[in-house]
Amino acid sequence: MTKTHQPKKLVEALIDFASQRDWQQYHSPKNLAMALSVECSELLEIFQWLTQDESKDLKGAELQHLKEEIGDVMIYLTMLGQHFSIDPVAAAFDKLEQNEKKYPAP
Known about the structure:
Number of helices: 5
Structural class: mainly alpha
Helix content: over 70%
Number of strands: 0
Shape: globular
């Protein structure tokens, strides 16, 4: 398994976006982690009062909202990872591999 799953174009686009707005000054690891937490909370809010069945069947504006919040989470996660040269997708594969050893299939 290769360790470079993260699309370089996303990282480059995020760096360029922040640079054009002079936002890098706000992108400390602490701030990025806090922003990530806020975006995860917004993701949770979509499902807050839904039943189990309703949560499995989002449509229209709800589905679009979910897509946007997943995008926000991915942006902040990617930016935080980039600060420490961690590829979030590679980290997920590594963690999955650890979990396979820790929790072997029957």
